[in-house]
Amino acid sequence: MAIDDLGGRASLVGLCQGGWLAAAYAARFPGKVTKLVLAGAPIDLAAAESGITRALAAVSQATLEEVMALAGGWVSGPLSLALWSDELSGEFSAEPALQCVGDAALTARFDDWNARAVDLPGAYFLQTAEWHFRENRLARGCFPALGRLARLSDIDAPIFVLAAADDEIVALPQATAVKALCRATNVAVRVEPGRHLSLFMGQRTLGGAWREIAGWLTQRDNSVA
């Protein structure tokens, strides 16, 4: 509805989970998306293992359902962190995320933000875990969206993929698989040094890659410097 209110076509920028959701939308409604930016987005979960796929492999769907039933149908923020915080602790520390060293005030702000993980609806969490992370339906072309299958091969909007070289949350091949799966359009791929959160809040990435992305979004052609 938001895109319809904006005139029926818009560019989408998706970060991490928002990335695969944006890709699914662009596949389901190709005529509504002008350009697509996917940053640290898990697109093909079969392309490589990652911290999240390993964590989910260690927890059965039945166990997740039982935990959520006890929590009233919600996945609490603390529970989400507990599921993979030990293995992925390096991804959630201030210095690699912010790409800065020795800024105590900024580190404190990051730690405060990082401690406030949001709660998620249990139905969404379970469906995402099963359909996307376990069954890889989006990459396989069998992800149902509003009565039809969302096929990545139907995306015709130009795509800019931003990925991190040392990302343990979304492994590099999971993110860059877009180029092979979206053959009907032009796909530019930029791999930045760093980890998952540095893609969204790292000083070096914000000052470099995201400036390039902003310029690309405003260009009439689809060339990438």
Provide a descriptive summary of the structure in words.
The chain is built from 14 helices and eight strands. It has 225 residues and is an alpha/beta fold. It has one domain: Alpha/Beta hydrolase fold, catalytic domain (Rossmann fold, 3-Layer(aba) Sandwich). The chain has a four-stranded parallel sheet with strand order 1-2-7-8, sandwiched between helices. A two-stranded antiparallel sheet has the order 3-4. The protein has a two-stranded antiparallel ribbon with strand order 5-6. Strand 5 and strand 6 form a beta hairpin. Helix 4 packs antiparallel against helix 8. It is globular, with a radius of gyration of 18 Å. The mean pLDDT is 92.
Please give the CATH architecture: 3-Layer(aba) Sandwich
Characterize the quaternary organization of these chains: single chain
- Topology pattern, helix = H, strand = E: HEHEHHEHHHEHHEEEHHEHHH
Q: What is the level 1 CATH name? A: Alpha Beta
Could you tell me how far the N terminus lies from the C terminus, measured between alpha carbons in angstroms? 33 Å
Arithmetic mean of pLDDT: 92
Number of domains: 1
CATH superfamily: Alpha/Beta hydrolase fold, catalytic domain
The count of helical stretches stands at 14
What's the CATH topology name?
Answer: Rossmann fold
Low-confidence stretches: none
Tally of strands: 8
Main sheet makeup: 4 strands, parallel
Shape call = globular
